[in-house]
Amino acid sequence: MGYAQISYKKLRFYAPKKKIRAHHRPSQRKVEFADKLRANMTPAERHLWAKLSKLSPVFEAQEILFGYIPDFLCRKHKLVIEVDGPVHDDRKEQDKMRDLHLSTQKFRTLRFTNQQVLENRAQVLGMIIEAL
């Protein structure tokens, strides 16, 4: 790490320079995939999005976050919401690794099944609001 020279009334000291991370743009393929997911939401995702899109703070649907595409995301409160369908039954280990990586970035993940979202709408929304 480099140091920047700082002068203050003939007093000199050296402070560490802040590291500036290069912004990594997602690949065009990843962007197109996120667009496709957004356009083809499951019925449970559509229902939850209808509720979340009206909440404040702002939620985003299927946006890229550290190379992942979570179903819903609130950047302000560092909250990721996943609505898991049958596809996730075969991806439990990948989901655990993803949740672990996001937690190292201070993001919390709430997971609900499609059935929970469709059958217990008020309870699911209540848990999300409580997490904010």
Task: Write up this protein.
The structure is a single chain. The model is unreliable at 1-22 (pLDDT under 50). A hairpin with a 4-residue loop joins strand 4 (72-74) and strand 5. The chain contains 5 helices and 6 strands. The strands form 2 sheets. It has a 4-stranded mixed beta sheet, sandwiched between helices. The chain is of the alpha+beta class. The longest helix has 13 residues, at 92-104. It has one domain (26-131): VSR Endonuclease (Endonuclease, Chain A).
Tally the structural domains.
1
- Beta-strand content bin: 15-25%
CATH superfamily: VSR Endonuclease
Structural category is: alpha+beta
Q: Regions with pLDDT < 50 over 5+ consecutive residues?
A: 1-22
**Mean of residue pLDDT values:** 81
Based on the coordinates given, report the CATH architecture: 3-Layer(aba) Sandwich
Cα distance, first to last residue?
A: 36 Å
CATH class: Alpha Beta
Number of helices: 5
Into which percent range does the helicity of residues fall?
Answer: 25-40%
Shape verdict? globular
**What's the alpha carbon Rg, rounded to whole Å?**
20 Å
CATH topology: Endonuclease, Chain A
Major sheet, described briefly?
Answer: 4 strands, mixed
Number of strands: 6
Short description:
This protein has 132 residues and is α+β, with helices and mostly antiparallel strands. 39% of the residues lie in helices and 22% in strands.
